[in-house]
Amino acid sequence: MTSAGNPRAAKGGEPCLCGGRPAGTGFGACCGRWIGHFETAAAPDAEALMRSRYSAFVRGDEPYLLATWHPSTRPGGLDLEAGVKWLGLEVRSHRTTDETHAEVEFVARSRLHGRATRLHERSRFVRENDGHGMLRWFYVDGSIS
Fold it and tell me: For all residues of the chain together, what is the average pLDDT?
């Protein structure tokens, strides 16, 4: 699964859609490493996965979002809202609870039809074998505040 051909795809040298880790890092060296090479590269930690999922939301990359969602909670499909303008991501905390579990708290800002919104979520992640011999992090669920 790659995102080649996606008209909303960021170019490798452009600033990453998640803001970069560290700040200002280009898409190709940040989230593009995981989104563009899903079959061969896994995000190293839950924060990197969460950031790449934010970038995937910005790009409208439903296949990546579903592939990184844990099978136990993954929906059959997504209804990505057309016209959403994502404005930014703030990661507030990243906490690894053990080798295979982590939480990431973040605020994602967006605008739809001129109305600004904030999504403040504490997401839960699990790390396990993906069934193809690769150990990777998956989004499980989140609590919104």
Answer: 91
Indicate the pTM of the whole model: 0.89
What's the average model confidence in pLDDT over 71-99?
95
Instruction: Kindly report, residue by residue over 7-52, the tens digit of the pLDDT.
Output: 344 555 689 999 998 888 999 999 999 999 999 999 999 999 999 9
The DSSP string of the chain is: ---TT-TTPPPTTSBPTT-TTTTT-BGGGTTHHHHTTTTT---SSHHHHHHHHHHHHHHT-HHHHHHTB-TTT--S---PPTT-EEEEEEEEEEEEEETTEEEEEEEEEEEETTEEEEEEEEEEEEEEE-SSS-EEEEEEEEEE-
Q: Contacts by 90-94 with C-beta closer than 8 Å and gap 24+?
A: 90/19, 91/47, 91/50, 91/51, 94/45, 94/46, 94/47
In Å, the largest CA–CA distance within the chain is 45
Residues 6+ apart with CB under 8 A from 141: 73, 123, 124
Question: Sign of torsion, CA 127 130 136 138?
Answer: negative
